[in-house]
Write a structure and sequence with these properties.
Layout (H helix, E strand, L loop, with lengths): L2 E8 L3 H8 L9 H4 L3 H10 L3 E6 L14 E4 L3 E4 L12 E2 L2 H13 L5 E3 L3 E2 L1 H10 L9 E7 L9 H16 L6 E7 L16 H10 L12 H8 L6 H9 L5 E12 L2 E10 L6
Parallel strand pairs: 1-9, 2-8, 2-9, 3-6, 4-7
Antiparallel strand pairs: 1-11, 3-8, 4-5, 10-11
InterPro entries: Xdiol_dOase_suB
Protein name: Class III extradiol dioxygenase family protein
Keywords: Dioxygenase, Oxidoreductase
């Protein structure tokens, strides 16, 4: 039966994509961040997961302010990345897993969530950059993608608790899937940053370290703040931590941290990468 092997949590800054495109991984500015992926590469090579369920936020590629779902789940046979103006031309397509996608959709609706279902969907840098970081140089991605988009843009935003509960529902859905796939969970975005307004450039290392400290052993500690509290603490884009919170909720086994990397700043963003092992496999 299906298993969840672990979780990968990482920033998805477009500047990282440009650094990859320009081959700047060993540049002194970028090297401390890219070095954080060595244990991730080792983990993926060892576990060889079949499916990646990715909690992320869309940046206007599929949804805009006039039509912004709180949650949207992809159920397409294939996804493609489109350049949003950052000059990141990642061409490798992402194979989907429609059967497992629909199973997850059906189960989360049964859990009283109401996601938008997307049988045709593009993915932006919030998916493309983490995939390029995790599988650099591969001719094709050795994994199937199920994207789950969370609204971090148009208020009212979902609460951290709501996102955590969504992740738990997704984890339960995977546990009842009758296939034999090994699944890795992604949470992308953050950490603290704000790109506009009077607080442009805002960073909060104290809040970032609070999140990193509690993500594995005590994720419910991250639920004490409302989404608006997080905007105040971490910046208007720092609220992307709710993607991490949802992904952590999907890890339903015994979770322990294998690696953590924090680097500040990367393109006005506090960037981090965390690798968690879900050591008790999830079985139906």
């Amino acid at each position: 039966m299906s298993t969840i092997c672990g979780g990968i949590f990482t920033s998805h800054v477009p500047g990282i994509g440009n650094a990859i495109a320009k081959g700047l991984q060993q540049d002194p500015y970028w090297k401390p961040f890219f070095d954080g992926f060595d244990p991730v590469h080792d983990f993926l090579e060892r576990e060889k997961p079949d499916v990646a369920v990715v909690f992320y936020n869309d940046h206007g590629l599929n949804f805009f302010l006039d039509k912004m779902p709180t949650f949207a789940i992809g159920a397409a046979p294939e996804y493609r990345h489109e350049d949003e103006g950052w000059g990141i031309a990642f061409q490798r397509p992402y194979e989907g897993h429609p059967d497992l996608s629909w199973h997850i959709i059906e189960e989360v609706v049964e859990s009283e969530f109401d996601p938008v279902t997307c049988q045709s969907m593009l993915v932006d840098h919030a998916v493309a950059v983490p995939f390029e970081l995790c599988w650099p140089g591969k001719e094709a991605f050795p994994i199937k993608l199920i994207p789950i988009a969370i609204n971090t843009v148009q208020h009212p935003l979902p609460s951290p608790k709501r996102c955590y509960n969504l992740g738990q529902a997704v984890g339960r859905a995977i546990s009842t899937w009758e296939g034999d796939e090994k699944v890795v969970i992604f949470g992308t975005g953050g950490l603290s940053h704000q790109l506009e307004g009077a607080r442009a450039g805002h960073l909060n290392p104290d809040y970032d370290r609070f999140c990193l400290k509690n993500l594995a052993p005590d994720p419910e500690a991250l639920l004490q703040h409302s989404s608006l509290d997080i905007v105040e603490l971490a910046g208007s884009q720092g609220v992307e931590i709710i993607n991490w919170i949802a992904a952590r909720g999907a890890l339903t086994g015994s979770v322990r941290e294998l690696a953590s990397n924090y680097h500040i700043p990367i393109s006005n963003t506090a960037a981090a990468t965390v690798l968690l092992e879900n050591s008790e496999t999830v079985r139906a």
